[in-house]
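Incident log, support desk, overnight shift.

02:14 A customer reports that sequence design results differ from what the structure should imply. Their input is reproduced verbatim below. On-call engineer (initials T.W.) acknowledged and began investigating.
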């Protein structure tokens, strides 16, 4: 995706959050993938936090997408943080079930 298209997608995504319809799991996932492919994995990581804030549970694929992007960008400390967060989330879901 061209850089201008990513910026345009960012605008549409933020308008959805403000005015509706609210982004769903698929919208978050597609946008996250685009951001990570464009070297904006920290923004993709923020989407995981946004999903959780909205009550949407990120999938293993969402986490892998962000981890892969962060690794490609050399942000290994963030990778460790993401993996710890994923482990903590999984543990919470196991305990609450």
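02:41 Re-run completed on a clean worker. Output:
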């Amino acid at each position: 995706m061209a850089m201008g298209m990513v910026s345009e997608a960012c605008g549409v995504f933020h308008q959805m959050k403000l005015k509706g319809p609210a982004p769903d799991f698929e919208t978050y996932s597609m946008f996250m993938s685009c951001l990570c492919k464009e070297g904006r994995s920290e923004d993709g990581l923020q989407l995981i936090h946004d999903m959780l804030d909205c009550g949407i549970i990120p999938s293993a694929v969402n986490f892998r997408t962000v981890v892969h992007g962060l690794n490609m960008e050399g942000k290994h400390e963030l990778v460790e943080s993401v993996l710890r967060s994923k482990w903590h989330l999984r543990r919470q879901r196991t305990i609450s079930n």
